[in-house]
Every structure is written in C-alpha cells, then in structure tokens.
C-alpha cells in the first residue's frame, strides 16, 4: 500500500532519512530521521532517540531534533505503518503484535548505535537516550523489559506506563463504544475528526493550524492489539531498570567537603504534561514512584552497576526523576509540528543536561 506523504513543518539543517535493515523481518523499510551535528560530538554525549506514540511518526519530533544545534545527535523512528516506513495491509496492521513493532524500534536503536560508533570511531556501543511518548513509551518499556535494547538513560515523555494503562483511556470511556460501532470498528474511531483530535490532545487555546499540522501526519490506521496488550501490567520494574546502563554515583557538589553524601544519577526521567487528559499527572507520578521504589530495592540488593547502597544517604528522587511541565498542547509530540506548540522544549533540555551530568 502506498505511504501517505506529509510535508515537514520545520526544516532541520543537516537532517537525513535512513532506512535501516531489519534484523529479522526484511519485508519493508523502516524510516529513521537523523540530525547529526556538524562538529564531532562529545564522546560522553549519548544521542537522543525519539519514539512516537499511536498514529504518530518520526516527523512529529522534528522541532525537538533542534538539540542538534547544541551538539547532540538526534534520531527519530517511524514504526511499520507510520510515517514513511513500509505499510502492511489494513488487517495485517490491525492485528499486528506488539513484539513486531518493538522489533522496528529495536532495529532503529541498533542502527543508531552502528552509525554513532562509526562516526565517533569507537568500538564500544554508543548507547542512546530514548525519549518515548504515549504508547511509544509502552513499546520502549516492553523492549527494555525483554532485553531487546540497552540504553544509557530513558525518558518517559507523557508516556503510557508499563504497570497497566486502563487509566490512560478513561477520557474516552463514554465515547469509545458508540464511536467504535459508528466508525464500523475502524482503528481510528476515536481520532476520525479534527475535533476528536483537538479535544484529546490539545488545550482550548491551541491554534487550529497546529492541530491540522498534526492531523496531516497521523497514519491512516493502527494496530488495535498493541494498546490492548498494554492495558494490563507487562513489566516488573527491575526488568526495565536493568536495561539502563548509565547509572553512576559521584561525590556531592553541595560544597561541604566533609560530607559523605553522593550524587546519584537520575537516568530515568518521567515527564507529565499538566494539561494531559490521557497520560495524566496522577498516572505518571504513580509510575515514577513505582520505578523509584524498584530502584532503591535493586541498589540495596546490589543489582545495579555504578551505585551502591551506601550512596543512598538521602534524597527521594535519586535514580528516578519526576517532573510536571506546562505545555500549550497536551499531546507532547505535537509541540514539534508548529509554532503554536509549547515551552517544554526547555524542560527536555534540562532533562538532557541532567543526563549529560550523569
């Protein structure tokens, strides 16, 4: 089936489109956008890897890929059936397994590791920092929990948590069944009109052109099995954190020379949008608390390299960081599709800066 063409809404300097080879599923190409700094990257700077949510695509992240201007390599993937990746048939994609799409995400991550290793002239793998949104967050947590990928750090960017996601769809509870029948069981039954997209993903003061810009980028159909499989808990916590490799601890910079306190890296960040009606603050704060409890337990058991139990003197946020950001659009990715987006690009920059310090 022909791929829909969407015009990019922001021009990136030195951007490229790759189609990495699928490691075990050579049916069609998977789109990978890249923005690589003109200067050689700092070897300690992990590249950003953006993972979109349902119906999204790599181009939705274009504005966020401006981090390249600060010397940070940026990549964004489109799973099969999205963006300019290959499109399976309608029914094939509707019943596509979550693991199959996780293979696309994995192929993108491994291709970035290869590109960055060659570009930097190093033998060891260059681990990425996934910035995953909505069901892309659930997909990346699945890949991490199954050991499909290893990453330096991980950011849940208004992402569906892996501990169960019934609450994320509460907004659609009353509209789901009548729309499902009215749209004849089409996967896009809750996103068939501009108003549906506006109500679910944007605040009332978001300019309509921003909504239309996002709508043009959405895929025509989607997997129905993938979000359904995420309704129930599919991660334990340790299975995700053990696939994050950038944990470190170093002397605190508090200024007290006699202090034995250590500064533990926060390699898992959970960002919530205060206006989001799907992945709400309450849901994501609960996910952050769960991961934080798991982090402390794993450190106490000696199961995380780079951090010891003696490093956890104080500080409830050690290891896992939770932040609520203010955004002009509840759909976090959509901030990248027009000038009417939001100001949380600076918040993400702060998160990246914190990862750099790690």
From TrEMBL:
Name a Pfam family for this protein: Abhydrolase_6
Q: Taking every annotated instance into account, which residue ranges of this chain make up the domain AB hydrolase-1?
A: 48-253
Q: What's the protein called, per UniProt?
A: AB hydrolase-1 domain-containing protein
Q: What organism is recorded for this protein?
A: Lentithecium fluviatile CBS 122367
